[in-house]
Fold this sequence. Notes:
The structure holds 2 protein chains of 2 kinds. In chain A, 27% of the residues lie in helices and 32% in strands. Chain A folds into 2 domains: 4-230, P-loop containing nucleotide triphosphate hydrolases (Rossmann fold, 3-Layer(aba) Sandwich); 241-325, CATH 2.40.50.140. Chain A is an alpha+beta fold. The longest helix of chain A has 18 residues, at 166-183. Chain A has helices at 42-50, 92-102, 107-120, 136-149, 166-183, 194-200, 218-223, 228-233, 244-247, and strands at residues 4-13, 16-26, 31-35, 57-62, 65-66, 77-80, 154-158, 186-191, 203-208, 211-216, 240-243, 254-257, 262-265, 271-280, 284-291, 295-302, 312-317, 323-325. In chain A, helix 2 packs across helix 3, helix 2 (92-102) packs parallel to helix 4 and helix 3 (107-120) packs across helix 4 (136-149). Chain B folds into 2 domains: 1-57; 67-274, Orthogonal Bundle (MetI-like fold). Helices cover 75% and strands 0% of the residues of chain B. Chain B contains 13 helices and no strands. Chains A and B meet through strand 6 and helix 2 of A and helix 8 and helix 9 of B. Chain A: It comes from Shinella lacus. Chain A: It is a peripheral membrane protein. Chain A: It holds the Pfam family TOBE_2. Chain A: It is found in: Cell inner membrane.
Amino acid sequence: xxxxxxxxxxxxxxxxxxxxxxxxxxxxxxxxxxxxxxxxxxxxxxxxxxxxxxxxxxxxxxxxxxxxxxxxxxxxxxxxxxxxxxxxxxxxxxxxxxxxxxxxxxxxxxxxxxxxxxxxxxxxxxxxxxxxxxxxxxxxxxxxxxxxxxxxxxxxxxxxxxxxxxxxxxxxxxxxxxxxxxxxxxxxxxxxxxxxxxxxxxxxxxxxxxxxxxxxxxxxxxxxxxxxxxxxxxxxxxxxxxxxxxxxxxxxxxxxxxxxxxxxxxxxxxxxxxxxxxxxxxxxxxxxxxxxxxxxxxxxxxxxxxxxxxxxxxxxxxxxxxxxxxxxxxxxx
Amino acid sequence: xxxxxxxxxxxxxxxxxxxxxxxxxxxxxxxxxxxxxxxxxxxxxxxxxxxxxxxxxxxxxxxxxxxxxxxxxxxxxxxxxxxxxxxxxxxxxxxxxxxxxxxxxxxxxxxxxxxxxxxxxxxxxxxxxxxxxxxxxxxxxxxxxxxxxxxxxxxxxxxxxxxxxxxxxxxxxxxxxxxxxxxxxxxxxxxxxxxxxxxxxxxxxxxxxxxxxxxxxxxxxxxxxxxxxxxxxxxxxxxxxxxxxxxxxxxxxxxxxxxxxxxxxxxxxxxxxxxxxxx
Lengths: 333, 279
């Protein structure tokens, strides 16, 4: 239970095509993350899966059943929203139980499912409170609890961590990862944060301008990006792109090298460069360099290094770490 | 230091303006109240004076209350006002929800069409309304008044409420849809409680013109059984002799029910603001 299939799904608002033909297969129990810059159509796609928007064309099936005409409540999904979207006038318990109550589930069953979910999320103490009396993190846990209680085929998360502060974000991220392990449920998660995508996903779907750029596991995307967009989007600091002509490579248009795949030395190396800015992060040192040969680029070194602005250094790309892209931005393999 | 002094003069001026406006608004009410408790001679000799021991006289009130019909007039006014407000809020909110929530062809035009009612006074249509009421046999019924006042109140209600409903979070409504709430439950159980302050505002704006109206009761329902307070008070105003005691007493009494309604709504209004229910 819990597979999802999209076939050439399109969506336009008036003359604007937001989603331009998406094909996607999600297996039962997979954690799939849609990631992309804002406006790429990832939230719209999620809302189409949820049934909150109608697709202009294409088919959506959950567990092999076409759901285009099925209302959201009957699709066997649950959704967690960025703004929590808790019912302000209901207690935590009633918030979690409302969906089941609407579906006509017996009271005892609702009770036991709410108990189970609140146990899982350690919300027991707050069951009688209203959303206004909870902190942001607690509210988001209630929203997740509301989804769990429904025991859906598909969990949909719409940027659930964006409204939380940094520390809470990490905790809630761990919580969601734990839930996925415990429930073994299919989850679809939308975010613009690549760290969330890399840490949570079994499979990442990178979207840009309403088109899927690449689908793959986090490491596949990192090691073998399909095109310039994915290469630049995944990884932080972003991959360095260098004109192939400057390096004397004839069979490619652009060469990409990740900042962490460059070695830095004061004495010798392939590219001579001058440091324009240095960031000391403790675990990492990030050096921004300007070179006559390859232009502006970034190097990420592990641990502490004492480089300063205006130091002259030499950078050397690691063997086999260069990514080659053709004139259309596609990776050459 | 100079900054503090500057803001002090500023708040002082603002308060002066507000106090001035309050005085101008309250003065006629005050004048009505004090004169309603004086004898006839005192009203004319010294209208600005508060009632003293010699001039104090409740003859106006005894006249008004002694006329058995006034209880009916009050009841009529109350029924017409409350029923009209209820209908205006219900239908206005429903129309506002449809306009703000759903994308359909002609949405903008429909909104404009409903808003036109704010600018065109309903009294321009009096003759047609009267003909309609005669044709449907509704003349001299409270239903006629309720219908007209509902129509009169809806445009402003739709205008104000649709603006407010746009601010209700889409996620909340969508969460309701996923939980299996019908569109009606979403409207009544999620959206309406959140726009309660706006509803109270609309109720106050709708209530006062209805309560004070003389025009439609005079034209559509002048019979003894359907008279409203405002119309009923007119019996004391004659072409040659006006019973000022009674008129002033009737008007003073007419303030009370509307004041009660106002307090009910304004409490709702304040509760809505302070509950902090949303987020």
